[in-house]
Structure formats: structure tokens, C-alpha cells
Amino acid sequence: MTAPQPESAGRGARVEVVGLGAAYGHTRVLDAVRFTVEPGGWLAVIGPNGSGKSTLLRSVLGLQAHEGQVRIDGVPTTGMPRRDRARLLAYAPQLPVLPEGISTREYVTLGRTPHRPLLAAPRRSDRAVVADVLQRLDLEPLADRLLATLSGGEQQRAVLARALAQRPRVLFLDEPTAALDLGHAQQVLDLLDRLRRQDGLTVVSTLHDLTLAGQYADRLTLLAAGRVVAEGTPAEVLTPAALAEHYGARAQVVSGPDGLAVLPVR
Amino acid sequence: MSATTHRTRPGRPTAGPGTVHPRRSTAVVTGAAGLALVAAVLAGIWVGAVPLAPGGVVLTLADRALGPFGIDVPGGLTGTQAAVLLQLRLPRVVLAVLVGAALAVSGAAYQGVFRNPLADPYLLGAAAGAGLGATLTIAYSPVQSLGPVGIVPLAAFAGALFGVFCALALGSVAGGAHSPTLLLAGIAVAAFLAAAQNLVQQQNTDDLREIYGWMIGQLGSSQWSDVVLVLPYLGLACAVLLCCGRALDVLAVGDDEAGSLGVHPGRLRLLVILAASLATASAVAVSGLIGFVGLVVPHIVRRLAGGSYTRVLPLSLLVGGAFLVVADLVARVVLAPAELPIGVVTAFVGAPFFAGLLWFGARRR
Lengths: 266, 365
Known about the structure:
The complex is a heterodimer of chains A (266) and B (365).
Chain A (H helix, E strand, L loop, with lengths): L14 E10 L2 E11 L4 E5 L6 H8 L6 E6 L2 E2 L5 H7 E4 L11 H6 L14 H13 L15 H14 L4 E5 L7 H18 L2 E5 L3 H7 L2 E6 L2 E6 L1 H4 L2 H8 L3 E6 L2 E6 L2
Helix pairs in contact in A: 4-5
Chain B lengths: L21 H25 L7 H13 L12 H36 L11 H15 L4 E2 L2 E2 H25 L3 H25 L4 H9 L7 H20 L1 H7 L3 H6 L4 H23 L5 H13 L3 H25 L8 H23 L1
Antiparallel strand pairs in B: 1-2
Helix pairs in contact in B: 1-3, 1-13, 3-8, 3-11, 3-12, 3-13, 4-5, 4-6, 4-7, 5-6, 5-11, 8-11, 8-13, 9-13, 12-13, 12-14, 13-14
């Protein structure tokens, strides 16, 4: 098998979001959200429950009615065919639906969907990409196991593998560590960081764990009630004052060897 | 997503429980299903109230096939036997294959589209609509047929499509192509049409026996004209459905993720529902309401070959055809020369078989 050439290795895209708004019925969920992620950057969207983080991701991906503009490397996604968009942007939702009765390999192969006609069987090149992704995410021993029989951490890796099999230029992750304990959460985030650096992939994720967000992302956007209230480096955004104001939380921010840590205070 | 569902056993990394070997088992299972269908068809032709010698059947069919080329094949069945074969047995077996295949493949498609293992082809009001159409014509129609085509099949066909159309219309008004809304719309439409059917039935107790006979499903009056009537619709619908396997696999990961993979879940769902409903309506038109096949055959197939719709759909086609031929055979033979309604047999034979499959499947794990 020839080593597949990643179609977009080292070509993470620049993401620009301008004036993004969304509503459920008469309830406005997002208002005039704007942010920019540089190619190869990692932006973590943080904010209290119900601040619109998931809606923001789904709007940027075009999975939800919204106003405003999303540009990928300067190209607006409005009016872009879904398949074209799916070759640029991949998405791992907070609660992925894991189909029953299919193997990990079959699941990861679904990530090749935007690269071939919907009716066509996977080609040799598709299978090569899948094999490559399975190997890089240490999923080879699990490739022929039923997806439903994997552990939570293994399933999260499989979801990540499916998204990476799309060979996207931007990876959108909604709470990739929500179902994981601390050790598995760190494994997944380390893996993401490694993939991002190797491929130059741009990553946009929501993360509710502020310490992990501060340690892994290079920029944070703090969302409160659907508006961006702070953005910048972790040190700029994670301040006791901001946590008190927007989370209603009492917390200290302490510097550790690997960045900031948010420490709750009684 | 519980971490406790399975633990990797050291030393058994690839052959532990839950391991699937898609490629090898697909070839084996497909071959076995094909053989089962052929065996079922042959048994369905040979066995019956008038026993037909296997050799004679082959020679008669060869004689008919080669007749137009001026080749006579001697030694076939007698005239009466040949008439039984060609006018009774053969159309009945062919229709059983078509109806079984259509119900099973549309059941699988419905289950995929709604991501619901309890879905069956009658879910969206197809059965209730067909029942109402058939009941109305049996009770009130002054004519028995329009040209060569019976009026009851036509009304059942139209009724089934009408039921599904109402469910789709109500569902789209109520909440777009969102699948739970559509499901509920289907249940509402089915309940309403079934109530209307019951009302008509109560007003026409003289026709009760005929209506009841139709509702429970039958293949006893099968003719070649039935085959000709439904074949184009069935062929088209099944061809579309067989092409949708990969699309249904994508849909299985949820609407949002399917959307992020470049698919339009709403459009896809509509296409599959339309094709499956066309297949169901055609089947119902010529056979009445045969239950159980569309619900259970896809599950049998999943247990044998895994959950990917690229395998479930074609295998449901084969297994559904074989299953209904066998059920019809049992219906003809058990009380010969009288016949059991096939709808009774599908549940009577199918339910224990499925229970056994669940039982042994659970023990093997």
C-alpha cells in the first residue's frame, strides 16, 4: 500500500467569522459574534452553560440557520455546496450518534463521503486514507471490532478518526472531552495537539474545562449570552474578574509550569 | 457511551467478542441467502396440492422457453399439470418473491431512515391507507375491475400512497424532515385512516369476511397480471433503495454529522421514504397486509451480516423473498387442500424463528 499523501497537510485554513447571529424562534442565541483563527491555530470557545457555544459551532458549519458570514481562507461558505464545505470543515459533535452493527473501520470510512459520489464504493485511495488515520490514532487493533463495543475513550478516538478521514482543513470539535475522565481527556487533547502540529490543521473547539482550554488552545473566545465578551490568549481571557462576572464563579487563576490553572475557591 | 461496556482483552486484540469480518462473511452470507432463495422457489414450485415431478417441471419450462424457437422438449408434465404449474404455481411463487423482497427491503430502509429498529413498511400510514382504499372498494365499488386490473389492488395502491403522502405533508408542516416529527405524523395519519376503515367496515358487515381476508394478506389468487401490474413499480423502487445503502450508512450517524459529511439528510430521507413507500404500496396492492416480514427480516439479516446498509438492503431483498415463499408454502400445505392466510403464517413461523435467533445470538456472545 502506498503511503497516502494528505490532501491538505500543512494547509490549515484561516477561519473568519463576522457578524454571526442565530435564533431559536424568537429567542436570540447568538448576536454579532466575530472571531478569527489563524491557519494552524487552536481556538477554544468557552462560556457558561447555555451561552451558545454549540450553536456557534453548528452555525459556522452551516448546519443551522444563521446570519452573518463565515470565510474559509477568504472564501465565504454561503452558497458553497455542502460537499465542498465538507472537504474543508469536519465536525465532531458533543454527543456523536454511533451506529450499531458496524465496525470501527466502516465508521471511519464514512469520513470519505464528501470525496466520492454518494453511491460509489470506497476507492483504493479512500481505503488508504482510512488505514493511515486508523494507524495514526492507534485504532488498528480495534478496526474490525464493532464500534458499539469500544470504550468511551476509544469511541471518542474513532469519532476523531472519522473527522480526520475527511482530510479537512479545519476541525470543529464540540466538547471533545465531555464524556472522558481526566486521563482520557488529556490523551485526546494531546493527540489533537500532535495532529494539529503535524498537519498544520486549524482547530476550533468548545471546552467547558477552563484549565484544559487554557493549557491546550492558543486563543480563547469567551461567550456569554450569545455575545463575545472577551478574546485573546488564555492569560488575557481567564481572569478572576471575568470568571466572576460571566460564570458567577469564585476562582483563582494560578500559573503552573504548563500554563494557567483555574482553581475554584470556597 | 459507557466505558464499561467492553474491556479489551489482552492477547486477543482482533478476535475478541464483537469482532466482525465484513468482507468474508458478506460473501458467504450473500451466497447462502441466494441459495436459500433458489431452494425456496424450487420447493414452492414442486410442493402443493397437486404434486409436480421436479423433472417434469424442468422439461415443461424448457419446452415453453424454447417453443418460440421451434424446439420441442418432450416428456414434460401432462396438460392439467402444466396448467397448474404455469397458471397457478409459478405466478404465485414469483409474486411471493416480489412481495417478500419489497416488504423486507422497504422495512430495512424505513428502519434506516428513522434510525428506529421498530420501524416497518406500514409505519407512515401505508397500511392504513391501503386498508381504507381496499375496504371502500370492497364495500361500495359497483365494478370489480378497470380493464384487466382489479379495482381492489388499484384502490389499495392509491390508498397506501395517499396515507404516506398525508404523513409527509403533515410532518413537513409540523416540523420539516425532522425524523421524530415525521414518525409522529405517520402515527397520527395511520390512526385516523384506520378509524375511517373501521367505520366503513362496521357499516358493511356483509363484506366483513372479504375485507378481513384482504387485511390479513393473501397470495391465493395470484395471477401473471398481478406480476405485470407491480413489477415496474417494484423494480424501480427496489433499484433506488439498493443504491441508497451507502447514503443510509451516512444518515445513521445523525442529521448533523451527515450534514457535516456533505449530505442533505432531509432530501435523502424523502427519496428513501418515497421509494420504500412505492415498493410497499405495490406489494400491498397485490397481497394485502402481510405483517412481520418488513419488521423482522432486516433484523435477521443484521444478525447475520452486520449493520451496514450496503449489506442489509440487498440481503433483505433475498431473505425477504425466500422467507415469503416458504411462508406461502407452509400456508398451502399445512391444511391442504384448505389454505391458511399467509399473514398468519409469517408471524406463526417467523416469530419463533426470530425468537430462536435472539436466543442463540445472546448465548453466543
